[in-house]
Design brief:
This protein is mainly β. The protein contains three helices and 21 strands. The strands form six sheets. Strands 5, 6, 7, 17, 18 and 20 form a six-stranded antiparallel sheet that branches. The protein is elongated and about 60 Å long. The termini are far apart.
Length: 282
Amino acid sequence: MTQHPQLPRRDLVAPPTQSRRRVAQGVESRSCAAAHAWSRKVILISTMGVFAATVTLAAEDTVLIDAPRAATPVTIATPTFPENAVAPSDGVKIQVIGTVLVDGTFRPQAVSAPEGLQPFSDAVSDALKWWRFAPAIDDTKCAVKEEVFSLSVSFEGTANQPHIYMTMPKPKPEVEHPSRIFESSWSPKVDYPSKMLANDIEGHVETITRFGVDGVAESVSILSSTPPGAFDAVVLRAARRTTVKYKSPPPTEPTCGLRTYTFCIPGSGGSRPVVKYFGCKD
């Protein structure tokens, strides 16, 4: 089996009552006070990496994919420590291997537990049903693809004092080819959906777009969205009309662009909670 470089362990302890709370990138969603939806300023941000811009989308926010991108977790559910269970002194390590499908769901192929510790593997299997991924990208086809993904989950302590850690492969750094960076881009305004705004819901949509050599969008696909489907329609309408201008020399074949649209509602001291997206700042 291929060995992946490992990230440092992250303690994702969650009491049983919180076990179904969705966690994005290992960071729990946060609730904060906010004013009524229609009385606050709304900001739509388009981001890629460290770049950010308000409604007008900046050229830096759409970059070409010059190397395949690995599948990346965007929603992580922490397993529940088995009821009345006690982990051995050296802990319990559950090895997981499976496939991230093109729709971002995870299909486990093996969830392995030491002999006699099946309740721990059952807990991991149950949590994996809630996981969602940004699927892997095949840059030669400008499309998503299935990819094998592995991780390990470690349990320590007891059900009353649980400690749960997850270890996943370290993401590969993305590479940009200097001759294929966009010089500028244009996209229509993306309006905050009124239903999401009225219910104080934040989120994101990540898209992959195939651009022709003339800079016109030929096809657009959703890679991931949070909450699923909530903002897809408004983003697709804008993404399909996006055009780009290439730096010289222009490419001689279609290219791929990746963009993340983040919908954020800044708090203004009100009493209604906002359904936070981890990528939004308070």
